[in-house]
Design brief:
Length: 196
């Protein structure tokens, strides 16, 4: 993909989304794919670590058994990599799993999935309800997207439940998207939105 930039040298919105999706896709499950021929798997009882900005190095004592997805797209990536469905997603009603009906042997049931948020707020207690071993989402996006989540909440969830591991690259470089999300506006125009 040829890189073009805005007049001020920043990436365009389309590029932010395209590059962000590519980075998230490539790094989402780094270290979580079961490839016994690689020789890099930890022995029983041996911990291992994986690294991704902005969360840095994350250590695991064992392969996570349950996980929470940032959204349906990230959940789809997990399913494509052979993982069980996530315990949750932002908007489960927008996770379009009917397409899996056409794939033999793949069944994704959302009836027990927990919706993380239906509005511009989230109660950190919902993380205790879903009880995931790893939260495949960018903690910065969580803090910036929703009211009611502070760094102290992120730290406590990581300490008591499991780490956050994900990167929504546009969360820091495309502030107009965060602004639009916070205003609950679907971005269809090329003009940035301002909350009233």
């Amino acid at each position: 993909m040829e890189r073009s930039t805005e007049a001020d040298g920043t990436l365009s919105r389309r590029e932010c989304v395209a590059y962000g999706g590519a980075v998230a896709s490539a790094g989402l499950f780094a270290g979580c794919i079961d490839d016994s021929s690689s020789g890099d798997e930890p022995a029983d009882g041996e911990s291992y670590s994986v690294t991704m900005e902005p969360v840095g190095e994350v250590s695991f004592d064992s392969v996570p058994e349950t996980w929470a997805a940032n959204n349906g797209s990230w959940a789809d990536m997990g399913i494509a990599l052979g993982q069980d469905p996530p315990t949750s997603a932002w908007l489960v009603n927008r996770y379009h799993t009917q397409y899996y009906d056409e794939i033999p042997g793949v069944d994704v049931d959302t009836s027990d999935m927990i919706t993380l948020s239906n509005d511009a707020s989230i109660d950190p207690e919902v993380f205790y309800e879903m009880d995931a071993d790893v939260h495949v989402m960018d903690p910065n996006f969580l803090k910036n997207r929703f009211d009611g989540v502070e760094q102290s909440d992120i730290d406590e969830i990581e300490q008591r439940l499991g780490p956050f591991f994900g990167n929504s690259i546009f969360s820091s470089s495309c502030s107009f998207l965060l602004q639009a999300y916070k205003c609950n506006i679907f971005v269809t125009d090329l003009q940035p939105y301002v909350c009233s």
